[in-house]
Amino acid sequence: MEIHADITHISYSEETIRQRVAEMGRELAAEYADKNPVFIGILKGAFVFLADLVRACEFPLEPQFLKASSYGMAAVTSGKVDIADALDVDIAGRHVLIVEDIIDTGVTMSRLRELLLERKPASLKFCAFLDKAERRKANIAVDYAGYVTPDAFFVGYGLDYAERYRNLPYIGVLKPELYEEK
User: Fold this and answer.
1) What angle do CA 158, 161, 164 make, to 5 degrees?
2) What angle separates helix 14-32 from helix 47-56, to the nearest 10 degrees?
3) Phi/psi at 181 (5° precision)
4) Contact in structure between 132 and 151 (CB atoms under 8 Å)
């Protein structure tokens, strides 16, 4: 099946993504260049963005991953946050940047913030390629956003629907008939 045919339109092209990630790397250098931060990518969606972002950051940093989700195989959040807390680094006294593909309701990030603050990092901030601020339910500020975006069902560049479309090199809007309840 041709996955590109499932997209209504491309919102962020490969080139747009590449340029914005490079800009974000420069923005992050202003704060983190001398701090040897820990960048924690949230699996599975952030793996593509984190890989590009760490290459755009020309300063020492330590990439790590955590698995966190509240969506499962659904198109909307279940409200139940599942976090596989398996960090293999001590973040006490370290500057930590949570890296996400998209922050939507903020429910998952709120729970993650609680868990990570218990470990006493020097600082804890959030970075997302897409910030869907108008849907926020939890009090989460995105410190570094690629784009503040309208409410749409985005896929590609790590974003998925039911584990599909992560491999698209751009971010597009999925046809509603593919995810809406009948």
Assistant:
1) 65
2) 60
3) -70, 140
4) yes
Average pLDDT over residues 99-124: 94
Question: What tokens does 177 get?
Answer: 């008939």
pLDDT at 84 > cutoff 80 = no
Phi/psi of residue 154, nearest 5 degrees: -90, 145
Rounded CA-CA distance 43/108 in Å is 12
For the chain, list the domains and their CATH numbers: 14-149 (3.40.50.2020)
Q: For residue 68, what pLDDT band results from cuts at 50, 70 and 90?
A: confident
Q: Classify the phi-psi angles of 63: left when phi > 0, otherwise alpha if psi is within -120 to 50, otherwise beta.
A: beta
| pLDDT grade for 2, boundaries at 50, 70 and 90 | confident
Among the listed residues 6, 101, 104, 131, the single catalytic one is 104
- CA-to-CA distance for 90 and 40, rounded, in angstroms? 12
Judge whether 104 counts as a catalytic residue. Answer: yes
